[in-house]
């Protein structure tokens, strides 16, 4: 039950992104929080002495703009080598202030996108016998005890901004459009035929199919000057009307049918006169 409550509390806590030394509130950066009092009520100034106007305090930041978080914090001796991946904390101190080199505070930072466990908080106590619940002992330095609180942390997922969808996009659909309702079949209006008294026998015998195949403006072109004129053979060529069949056959036998080549040879014109005239040199006019 205690572990579950601890995880629930960690869910809303931002991790530490940096830890540093600061001489006072004036030298502490704006995005840092300075620890001026320990958990048991003592002053958290690491420089102890009579009438000391300045010292150095621990401060931390939770600003995620840098893109890194503190995954671990340790205290090592000046004789120990710094582990791989760790670094000394930054110092924001007055020129006359010095930090004790006997023990150093180091941190390990990792990118916020790959973090699993991070340092969520640090606290100080002046009495080593005092224990802080849900906090881990880091070490003692210059009479103070440093505690840290670790927990899981995941990068917050940015929320997408709602976009206004136009009515045209709402009408779009991947489904196939439904077929339009089928209307009952309607018969096309076939133009009525003219009375037989005004049309020739040829026009009168036209079928309805001829009207359907004509274009919309064929009503004017369909009627010609021969409509209504009776057709009859000239008496000179009517074999039944007179006895000139032999004479007509002899006349027809004298007709010569010419081929295309005969016609081209008979009416061929080479334009030789025009060609010779075009080749003549025009006389020049002296100026």
Automatic annotation (TrEMBL):
The keyword Transport appears for this protein: yes
Domain UMA positions: 226-278
Entry keywords, A to Z: Cytoplasm, Endosome, Membrane, Protein transport, SH3-binding, Transport
All copies of domain MABP, residue ranges: 13-152
InterPro entries reported in the protein's UniProt record: MABP (IPR023341), MVB12A (IPR040335), MVB12A/B (IPR018798), UMA (IPR023340)
Subcellular localization, as worded in the UniProt entry: Cytoplasm; Late endosome membrane
Subcellular location, principal: cytoplasm
Region of interest (Disordered), residue spans: 181-201
Keyword Transport included in the entry's annotation: yes
Topology with respect to the bilayer: Peripheral membrane protein
Pfam families: DUF2464
Family in the record: Belongs to the MVB12 family.
Protein name: Multivesicular body subunit 12A
Species per Swiss-Prot/TrEMBL record: Ataeniobius toweri
């Amino acid at each position: 039950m205690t572990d579950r409550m601890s995880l629930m509390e960690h869910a809303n806590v931002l991790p530490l992104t940096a830890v540093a030394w600061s001489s006072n509130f004036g030298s502490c950066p704006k995005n840092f929080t300075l620890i001026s009092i320990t958990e048991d009520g003592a002053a958290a100034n690491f420089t102890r002495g009579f009438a000391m106007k300045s010292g150095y305090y621990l401060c931390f930041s939770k600003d995620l703009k840098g893109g890194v978080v503190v995954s671990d914090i340790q205290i090592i001796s000046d004789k120990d080598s710094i582990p791989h991946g760790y670094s000394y904390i930054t110092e924001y101190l007055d020129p006359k202030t010095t930090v004790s080199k006997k023990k150093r505070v180091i941190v390990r930072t990792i990118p916020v996108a790959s973090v699993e466990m991070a340092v969520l908080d640090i606290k100080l106590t002046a009495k080593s016998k005092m224990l802080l619940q849900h906090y881990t002992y880091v070490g003692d330095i210059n009479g103070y005890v440093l505690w840290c609180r670790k927990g899981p942390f995941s990068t917050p997922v940015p929320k997408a901004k709602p976009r206004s969808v136009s009515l045209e996009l709402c009408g779009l659909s991947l489904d196939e459009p439904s077929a339009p309702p089928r209307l009952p079949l309607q018969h096309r209006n076939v133009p009525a035929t003219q009375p037989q008294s005004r049309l020739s026998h040829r026009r009168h015998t036209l079928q309805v199919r001829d009207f359907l195949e004509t274009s919309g403006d064929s009503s004017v072109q369909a009627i010609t000057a021969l409509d209504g004129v009776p057709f009859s053979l000239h008496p000179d060529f009517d074999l039944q009307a007179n006895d000139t069949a032999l004479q007509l056959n002899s006349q027809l036998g004298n007709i010569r049918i010419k081929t295309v080549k005969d016609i081209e040879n008979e009416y061929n014109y080479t334009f030789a006169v025009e060609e010779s005239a075009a080749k003549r040199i025009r006389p020049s006019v002296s100026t």
